[in-house]
Structures are given as structure tokens and as C-alpha cells.
Specification:
Distance between the termini: 81 Å
Radius of gyration: 24 Å
Shape: elongated
Structural class: mainly alpha
């Protein structure tokens, strides 16, 4: 006689912990996508844990799918923001050196109004 079990039987090769860690790391990566290193590390780990949690099966568990999705979105957003920043500097300033020169032209008068010698301040950091 066949017995019907309530719910779904989990494959012993699947890892519930990796599914959970994938989901949590994906959420952390998505929340911190404006920083540079945190979403790259957490998002990459979320993707790896989601792939490893399958246990040789062809489908993902819902938590692993959520971790894979959020981790991929976060990594994609960070790569897009970095590329956008580089393109922005190159289009509007021509080079990073021109951006630094224009920034110095803006910052120097502000320091002089405060009575701080800008050249002396730069010497202290070199």
C-alpha cells in the first residue's frame, strides 16, 4: 500500500542549511548593494550556496531560488554601478585626472574660507 505523506519529502542530498544561508546572504547583498565589497562577497556566496544546495537535482528549492535571485540581482547592480561610475567620469570629465583637478578647484576655496591652508593639508597626507 502506498502512503501519502503530508508535505514534500526532502532529498537527503539537498542541504537545508545551504538554502537558508543562500537566502540570507542574498538578502544582505541586496540590502547593501550601494557599498562595493559587501554585495559582491555576499551575492557571490549566495549564488554558490544556492547552486550547491541542489544536491544533484535539476530543480532549486524555494529558499535556494530566492538566494540565487537576490544574489544575482545584487551582483548585477554593483557591476552596473561601477561601470556607470567609470563611464560618467570619462564622459563628463574626460579622465580621472581632470575630475581631480576640478574637484580641487572647488575644494580649495572652501578650505581657504575656513582658514586652512590647502597645500599644507595635502602635504600632511603624503
Amino acid at each position: 500500500m502506498d502512503y501519502q505523506f503530508y508535505g514534500q519529502q526532502q532529498n537527503p542530498r539537498r542541504s537545508g542549511r545551504m538554502e537558508f544561508y543562500s537566502m540570507v546572504l542574498g538578502i544582505i547583498a541586496l540590502v547593501t548593494f550601494c557599498t562595493l565589497y559587501s554585495p559582491l562577497i555576499c551575492g557571490s556566496l549566495a549564488i554558490v550556496f544556492a547552486l550547491l544546495s541542489r544536491g544533484g537535482e535539476a530543480t532549486f528549492a524555494p529558499r535556494a531560488r530566492a538566494g540565487l535571485t537576490t544574489g544575482s540581482i545584487a551582483v548585477g547592480l554593483v557591476v552596473f554601478l561601477c561601470a556607470f561610475s567609470v563611464i560618467y567620469v570619462l564622459v563628463f570629465y574626460g579622465s580621472v585626472e581632470n575630475m581631480l583637478i576640478q574637484t580641487e578647484d572647488i575644494v580649495r576655496p572652501m578650505y581657504e574660507r575656513l582658514g586652512i591652508d590647502y597645500d599644507m593639508l595635502l602635504q600632511s597626507y603624503r
